[in-house]
Amino acid sequence: MSQFRDTFTKDSKKEPLLSYDDSAFIFFAGTVLICVLVPCTYIYVKSLINKFFSNDYYNLNKSKHNSIYRSCKCSLCQEKQERGIKSKTLWQKLGYKKITQFFLLLVFWICLGILFKKMLNTKPMQTFDPFEILEVSIGASVGEIKKAYRLKSLKYHPDKNPNDTSAAAKFILITKAYQALTDEISKENYERYGNPDGPGMMKVGIGLPKLLIDERYQLLILSIFFLIFLVFIPAVFIIYYQKQKQYGSNGVKIETLQYLTYTINENSRAKAYPEMLAATAESRDIQLREIDNTYVKKMMDELTEPKKRTFKVPIITKNYFLILAHMQRRYDLLSDDLKKDLDKILEFSLLITHCMIEISILRDWFLTAQAALTFRRCLIQALDIRSSSLIQIPHFDENNVKHVHKGKNSVKDLLEFVHQSHENRKGLVDMTENQTLDVKAFCTIVPDIKMSGEIEVEDETHIVKGDIASIYVHIDRTNLNENEASGYIHAPFFPHSKFEEWWIVATYKGDDRILKYVHVKNSEKKVEEKLQFLVDRVGNLTVSIHILSDCYFGCDKKIDISFKSYSPTEIKREIFVHPEDIELDNEPTLFQQMMGDIRKKGESSDEEEEDNLRAKLKSNFIQNKDSSNKVGLKNGMKSAVKSSGKNDSKDGSKGVGKDGGKGDDSKNDSTKSSPKDEETDDLENYIPENENTEDSDYD
Length: 699
Fold this sequence. Notes:
The protein has helices at residues 22-53, 75-87, 90-121, 130-134, 142-156, 165-182, 184-193, 218-244, 254-263, 273-278, 281-284, 292-302, 314-327, 336-362, 366-381, 398-405, 414-419, 433-445, 579-586, 590-623, 630-643, 675-686; strands at residues 68-70, 449-456, 463-464, 468-477, 484-486, 502-508, 514-520, 526-534, 539-549, 557-566. With 699 residues, the protein is α+β, with helices and mostly antiparallel strands. It folds into 5 domains: 130-193, DnaJ domain (Helix Hairpins); 214-244; 254-445, CATH 1.10.3380.10; 449-566, Immunoglobulin-like, CATH 2.60.40.150; 590-662 and 672-686. It has a 5-stranded mixed β-sheet with strand order 3-10-9-6-7. A 3-stranded antiparallel β-sheet has the order 2-4-8, with no helix packed on it. A two-stranded parallel sheet has the order 1-5. The longest helix has 34 residues, at 590-623. The chain is extended and about 125 Å long. Residues 129-194 form the J domain.
């Protein structure tokens, strides 16, 4: 490393306090890049390995409760997963984020390589080594040192090299090296400071390139800083903010939320939701191509519309028929570009349908929420609104459903089919062995829910109107074994993998008003949830608990829980108050404590004034004892007592009379005199009778 420029110097020459050093910057920048690039590269490579060499669909990690996920392993779901992997190019698999990270890492590794190359070319820092200068070994004797000094000094002596400045500098170094090894003081300085002359100047530098302070590049450096801090960073923030402000906290566009809030009403049913989804802001952002009109007209002729369309806008019409083609499984009517557009719609449909459900539930529209859930299932399972739940079974169509509905061992819904033994299941006659295995695999992952619940008020034996009642719901997935959790669902026509989700809704029996709801994402075999609601009725009541699946038809369950609600006048509850709470109530508050201190201060100040007044009277009496007569002193005492006001007379007794007697109180003859009156009487009795009062100060 090259020598740093002196920052602090003893010379009279003034140098800058801070010096920029290129060599120090090389080492500093290289150290920072190594500390950042090594962990970032490790994380990036690890994520790439997980992305390309492990299939998340078949290698799910265990749940947070250490349960093993059970996912659908039918051939249709496997084909969907493989089809999704093959359809993506390398760039699509990596994604924009991974590609950007790759190029950034590549650029920084190239910079690190350049820095390493410069580090190797940097000269090492030169230190003072007398043995190296004299070219003797470290353990050389004094004679060897002197001999080497003689030879070197003769060779580089300035008299023998008059025109060679380097020889003179070399001679000085030789002399210093000889002194450092022979002279005791110089040797001690060398051992302590590394220099025979003693401590030298401190040399420091800044690990930044000199380019920053070079006058030739000042305009360039200033322009770069201006562009970075005043243009680039604010522009990135503004672009990010403009994009983010379009979305709500749930990831849905604000425009879509406003549209759904305005459109959804109490009478909205499942047949109206496809057009709502097609008209959302996310759907309208999809590209509309001229060639799409041909396919849209064909879909209009082939597909069955659940209701008359409201919108005639081309992009909404296109999206509407794409959704219907998916629900009716008519993918033969779609081009490759339209299939990609459909995948985009289905990708954000989960967020939007979730908003539809929440909007309905928050407005206490239970039937509307059920309709939104029905539409969500139709999208996930690619079913029409009027289709049978048996169509969810792999390789089943309308003909199989008709066969299953008729004759012996006929079933009407999905769970009845699942509960049958494999030998008694109908509709499997024309299937191949692999297709039959798919049906078996499907039946093992269909959620078969066993639900129970109870209602109670915490720490109470009766439920009274106005109480907050708690509903404890216990869910058991009987299709799972112990230490198993529900994995990815069976959805071969939905482009993305998905877990089960459930909605638990509590209502009064026969009433659609929602008391409480909870959204359950727990995939464990056994789940417990708690719902709390306000009891606002009196009498024998029944609460219906609905558990609704968001991805399967025919798996919903309902239980009724009955209880009796009493009026507050029927049940008188004793309120137990703990003794410690009573003691806390008796303790003065902070305000009361402050007021108490003020009162004490006021009373103490009044007492001090009274004591000072009495002390003053006594001192005046003693000072004027020899010169005051009895009458004058009595008059003075009387006037002084009167001047003290009401503070000196609490019981209303009269002052001292002119003749030295006590005041007459006809109303309270038997009342005891106050301490102040007794003190005044003592003072009067203390006055000598024959004392002259003409010169009294109290006159």
